[in-house]
Amino acid sequence: TPVWQAALAGAVVGTLPDLDVFIDKGDAIRNMVLHRAETHAFFWQALVSPLIAYVLAVLTRSRADFPYWWLMVIVGLFTHSLLDAITVYGTQIALPFSNHPFGLGSLFIIDPSYTLPLVLGVLMTLLWRSRNRLRWNTAGLVISTLYAGWAIGAQAYVTDKVMASPAAVGLEPDQVLVTPTPFNTLLWRIVLVDEDSYQEGFYAIADGWTAPDRPIRFERFDRGSTIDAATADFEDANRIRAFSKGFYALQDDGRRIWITDLRMGQHPFYAFSFAFAQHQSEPLTPIAPIRRTRRMPMDEGLDWIGRRLRGEDLPPPRPPEAIP
User: Fold this and answer.
1) How far apart are CA 242 and CA 221, in angstroms?
2) Are strands 265-266 and 218-222 parallel, antiparallel or unpaired?
3) Per-residue confidence (pLDDT) for residue 131, from 0 to 100
């Protein structure tokens, strides 16, 4: 099989699991929590892999290579799901036996330091005219894998720092979230949750030598515990409560009740907030979920990340209305 055909087939197979984003699951909350579900589950991937491999073997007129195509499909699908499970989002790789959303949170969903070696390795393999050109692809894979290993180790290092801090005293490990800020693994975001509030802080790997005695600075925010009790039976909110593994907050804007997944974003810029109830009457009335996304200004955010990961003691960006 020509190298370009193998590369194209690999790109297609690597994309297949994420095509579920084009399937409407019913509403905004279901579209979120049911993404990375069946198409990312090892059982279903193994079941469908022979068919995908057969189609590729037919299209490339290489039916004799079917076992190799099958191996490629299995490896491509499984590694896609494993990589997704290293991010914080939540990947249901154990369906249909368990719908637990695995999310280690060691890598940001987009990280150039992981992706670029893979892309460059493939490009060099396609463009390099040499019998040994596959070594470029191997090198890219090795570098990206080592980077993922570094990310997991860095997360463990920061987690140890957090658990030893005064702010984490009395908290269980499942009340502590440590995950990287966008596009890097040098600056980490920390979320500590208890029944009534959550705390947010940041720790840079560089803090260990630029300011080893400086404590992690945390800010405390309300989680809406009274709203939590009043909406305990709301199915849509419970989906987010379960999917976020308890890292959520509720807010009443006077008209609607909102639930926010605290894992993706940083205060007050979150990717997933949903209105699920309103004050049309008492008690609260359920409504079809409405998604709200608030993004940090790109220039301001990247400047802060760049300076903070170098060890500068800077507070995170805040919109004017969020500054007391």
Assistant:
1) 21
2) unpaired
3) 77
pLDDT in tens, 53-106: 999 999 999 999 999 999 999 999 999 999 999 999 999 999 999 999 999 999
Which secondary-structure segment (H or E) carries 287? strand 285-292
For residue 81, the tally of other CB atoms under 10 A from its CB is: 19
DSSP, collapsed to helix, strand or coil, labels residue 277 as strand
The Cα–Cα gap between 51 and 203 comes to 47
Q: What is the pTM of this model?
A: 0.93
CB 290 within 8 Å of CB 273: no
Whether residue 10 contacts residue 3, with contact meaning beta carbons closer than 8 Å, is answered with no
Task: Sort 93 into a burial class: Cβ within 10 Å, 0-12 / 13-18 / 19+.
Answer: buried
Find out whether 220 and 208 touch, Cβ atoms under 8 Å.
no
Q: Which residue has the tokens 């490629």?
A: 72
CA–CA gap between residue 291 and residue 6 (Å, rounded): 39
Whether the pLDDT of residue 323 is over 60: the answer is no
Q: What's the pLDDT score for residue 133?
A: 84
DSSP code, position 309: T
* CB neighbour class for 239 (10 Å; exposed up to 12, middle 13-18, buried from 19): buried
Task: Evaluate if residue 322 carries a pLDDT over 70.
Answer: no
CA angle 271, 112, 291 (to 5 degrees): 10
CB 227 within 8 A of CB 195: no
Helix or strand holding residue 275 (H, E): strand 273-278
Using CA atoms, how far apart are residues 115 and 321, in angstroms rounded to an integer? 36
Are 201 and 167 in contact by the 8 Å Cβ rule? The answer is yes
Separation between Cα atoms, residue 237 and residue 62, nearest integer Å: 50
